[in-house]
Write a structure and sequence with these properties.
Elements lengths: L6 E5 L6 H14 L2 H6 L1 E5 L2 H13 L4 E5 L16 H5 L5 E4 L2 H6 L4 H13 L3 E6 L3 H5 L3 H12 L10 E4 L13 H19 L1 H6 L1 E5 L7 H5 L6 E4 L6 H8 L5
Parallel strand pairs: 1-2, 1-8, 2-3, 3-4, 4-5, 5-6, 6-7, 7-8
Helix pairs in contact: 1-3, 1-12, 8-9
The structure holds phosphoenolpyruvate.
């Protein structure tokens, strides 16, 4: 059995200035014990403007937390007003970069090809993509959830030599920020489905190793059950990661 340490990552979206960000990370750290960090990897994903502050805090206080960014551009540098390169993120000791979040796909026009460029740029820079896939409600209701996810996974990983080096976040769009969560059985089944695609793309060992998170209204009250599912290797957490108490409970899910 491969060691798939769960990754609990808090995606703060466009919330918290750099001072609020420092306070939130301090509050989360205060609530976690060394054992919690041993059982799960904990990451915070603040807006760009807080990355430097959180990097400094993590290093100064030796917090065993990883830092993530919510987006990147795929080029190294150039005339791309408003964009941030992976190299810039790497200089801030960012480990994870979210690629293809459903809000970026739906609100900012990112398609599978764009997401694939970002995934490859992140890997090329030695960082780890948190590559998001998931079906909108209409497609789920039309029975197309699997085909949508199949397309997204294969397109997003095109040209990626080692898909197991990517963290995949299965996030059904209808469950993000809505308070609706997939049942643990459904979430596990879809994560297992993604794992089968990885087996098809890269073999059984890659499928056994790749970490597949669930995301979509993960909360203090449902984290333990979701994380207990065999195909779910952690959570990408939006709203609940903005509250230290809730996020800490999710990070401590192994305590039951
Ligand atoms: C997310 O932002 O990826 C997410 C899953 O949000 P929420 O937990 O609020 O549904």
């Amino acid at each position: 059995m491969a060691d798939r340490t769960p990754l609990i990552a808090g995606n703060w979206k466009m919330n918290n200035d750099h001072l609020e960000a420092i306070s939130l990370v301090q509050q989360v750290a205060y609530r976690l014990e060394p054992e919690d960090y041993e059982r799960s990897e904990v990451a915070v994903i603040p807006p760009f403007t807080a990355l430097r502050s959180i990097q400094t805090l993590i290093e100064a206080d030796k917090l065993p937390m990883a830092l993530g960014a919510q987006n990147c551009h795929w080029e190294d540098a150039g005339a791309f007003t408003g964009e941030v390169s992976v190299g810039m993120l790497s200089q801030l000791n960012v480990t994870y970069v979210v690629c293809g979040h459903s809000e970026r796909r739906a609100l900012f026009g990112e398609d599978d090809a764009t997401v694939n460029r970002k995934v490859r740029a992140v890997i090329d820079a030695g960082l780890v993509p948190i590559f998001c896939v998931g079906e909108p409600l209409e497609q789920r209701e039309a029975g197309e959830a699997e085909s949508v996810v199949d397309r997204q996974v294969r397109a997003g990983l095109e040209g990626v030599d080692d898909p197991a080096s990517v963290v995949i976040a299965y996030e059904p769009v209808w469950a993000i920020g809505t308070g609706r969560t997939a049942t643990s059985e459904d979430a596990n089944a879809m994560c297992g489905y993604v794992r089968d695609i990885i087996a098809d793309l890269a073999g059984d060992e890659a499928a056994e190793t790749v970490r597949i998170q669930y995301g979509g209204s993960v909360k203090a009250g449902n984290a333990a059950e979701l994380m207990g599912q065999p195909h779910i290797d952690g959570a990408l957490v939006g709203g609940a990661s903005l509250k230290a108490d809730d996020f800490a409970v999710i990070c401590r899910h192994h305590r039951g």
